[in-house]
Every structure is written in C-alpha cells, then in structure tokens.
Amino acid sequence: MQDIVRPIDECRVCGNNDWLDVISFGSTPLAGNLLGARDDPAKEPRFPLDVVVCRKCWLMTLRHVIEPDVLFGHYLYVASDAGSIIRQMRRLVDLCIGRIGLTGDDLVVEFGSNTGAHLELFQQAGMRVLGVDPARNLAEIAAERGPARLVFGRQCLAHIPDIHGVLNGVRALLAPDGLFFVEVPYLVELLANNQFDTIFHEHLSYFSVASLCTLFESHGLRVVDVHTAEVHGGSIVVFAAPATAGYEVQPSVAEMLAEEQRQGIAEERTYREFAERTQRVRTQIRDLVCGLVAEGKSVAGYGAPTKGSALLDACGLGHEQIRFCSDTTTLKQGKVLPGSRVPIWSPEQAGDQVPDYYLLLAWNYAPEIIKKEKSFLDNGGRFIVPIPEPRVISAESIGRWLREGLAADDPSGG
Length: 414
Hints:
Blueprint: E1 5-7, E2 19-29, E3 35-36, E4 46-54, E5 60-62, E6 64-66, H1 68-71, H2 83-100, E7 107-111, H3 117-124, E8 128-132, H4 138-145, E9 148-154, H5 163-173, E10 174-185, H6 187-192, E11 205-206, H7 209-217, E12 221-229, E13 235-242, H8 251-262, H9 268-294, E14 299-302, H10 306-314, E15 322-326, E16 335-336, E17 344-345, H11 347-351, E18 357-360, H12 366-372, H13 374-378, E19 382-385, E20 391-393, H14 398-404
Parallel strand pairs: 7-8, 7-9, 9-10, 14-15, 14-18, 15-17, 18-19
Antiparallel strand pairs: 1-6, 2-4, 3-16, 4-5, 5-11, 10-13, 12-13, 19-20
Helix pairs in contact: 4-5
C-alpha cells in the first residue's frame, strides 16, 4: 500500500509544510472507479481522503497522493456536452481571440484536452491546434511546431501532482507575447456552498486566485485577468502572461484578491466552519433520503458523475436507499458506483421504473435538468437538490426555485 499511496511532504505550490487539518472523510473508494455488476465489493480498494490547507499560500489539498496508474487506471470521464459548458467554451474562444489577436498562423495548445471539443472551436476559427498530455515534454513541442500564442488547460490542473513540471513546460512552449490560462473549480465557491462532494482522490488541489498567483509568479508568469464561470459549481478562469509581455493587468485581479480576503480565505476559521457545515449537510441528506425510503417512497439518482459517488459515500447511502442512477453516458451504463454499489441505468431503462424522487447528483446542471424533466415534476415526481443544503423541488416550487436559485421546501416537497 505504501507504494500506491503516500502522504505529501510539502505544499505543491509554495513548498511549505505547515498544515491545518480541515476534514477527514475516512477511507473511501476511488469515486471515479466504476465497477462491473459482478465485481467483488470486498476487493474494492479504499484510500484515505483527508483534507488539509497550507497556512502560507492557502492552497487546499489532499494529504495523500495515489499513484496515477491506480488513480486513473479505470477513471471514466467524458467531457460534458451540456449547454452551459459549450457556451463557456465559446466565450473563452472569443475572449482569447479578442485579447491577443489570434490569427490562422498561431498555435493553440491545450493540455488535458479530453475529447478535444474546445480545441475544435479554435480550429473552426482558423487556428492551428494541438492537444497534449500534461506529462509530455512541452519544450519538445515548441521545437517541433514553434512557440504557442495560447496555452490553456480546463478543469485538469487540480488532478496534477507535479504542477511545477507543467508550468515549466508552459514557459518553454509559450511565445514571448503569448497568453496562458487555466479554468479550475473555485475554492471560495466550494467553501461557501458546502461542495464537499467535489472532494475526492482525483482532485488533489483546490485553488484560489491567491494560490494561483503564487504558483504562476514562481515561474515568471504574471496574472493579468480573472473571470468567473458558473460551470462545475463555480469556477475561475485565470489568465497569465510572461512578466515581460506587456499585458495590462485588469482590475479584476485586485478585485478578486480583495474579495478572497473578505471571504476569509486566509483565516483558519473559514475552514473549520466549512467542516462543521459539511458534517451537518451530510447528516441532513442521509436523514432526508432514509426518511423517504422508510415512508415507502422510491429514490433514484439523476446522473452518475464522480461527485455523485463521493456524495453517496460521504452520506452513507447505498443501493438499499438509492435504487439506481440514470445517466446518458453509454460507457457508464451497466456498471455500478464504487462503494455504494448503486447500478447505473440508461434513461430508457429508468423510464420503465420512474421513482418518486430523484436525488440530483449532477446538481451543477440543476436548472438545465429540471427544465428538461418538467414532465417528471408535472406527474408528481420531485427532485432533491443536495448542495448547498438539501431541498426538494416539486412542480409547485420550481418557478420560485428557478427565480431565486434556492427553494426552502420541506422534506415532503410541500
């Protein structure tokens, strides 16, 4: 086991080793490791899931790192084609083209490009594009194809243990007047909205603007702009450029850093309060679901994202309470969630056994999903939106919930 999992010796951003313990979820299965229906649950590996924060740069991170071959050997992630994700991709393409005046001769490189959907949009706009593995020697790419005017990574930096290695590669690849950006889940949103289900072994780092400034500055990159995005429960897009590139630093950088200070990102109490709220919300979700099942109601999961596995495990819910999860991803169908052993069904199969309640595991797409499934609500079904606190959405309350972004329904959905 020691060869597979190891504790971190120092902060991967600043090298400090003074940690504040935030929360421990105990020993848990790999949330992204979907299993076959006949796999022996006794052989399912579990690993410590403990969260700490660096007292110097305030990077929040997992205390233990699992070997990538084990961590991602069976990890199944397909980039979402949800409307909100596509709109965000297009917004970033337009923003980058406008900011640095990309032309057809320019090279755009994405690390961790998954299906390449974002690069395809740059290609359609006339740029040369290349998707690469973050572990590849990016300096070799520069020698082969020339420097890149734009290098970026979306929703992947948190997965990478050696982020300094990646930044060294970015500097080697980036043109002197080039621009670099990352999109990452935002630590401030995670803490404020009780997004404990986004904490799992595959997510090693939880970034703020401040911690990314520290990271980038150590590689001669200056943060020049920050944008927020609603995707994945709240993300930030942080733009950086070589300090000598001459990009004007936008007011958003100072504004975001000041807001982080107001939110207490560098105060220990912020993390202790998050841990306390997390324990309370975990109990509330479990009590709500178990209470409904005890009343004879049927509950299923909507979506089977990695965070859904993490939520069910954190709340102590399994296939005894959650009959199935409905998911449109063909590669997931027929498998079971790790730990909870909840089977994953296609929407067609789920349509034959419609539950009374859907626990919305893909809660970050809640508005899109609930609008799409209006007929489910009209026929008496109800959604449980678990984050930031569990609330029940019925046909009667959907309008108010969509207007306010929050519905304080009681467990019966009245």
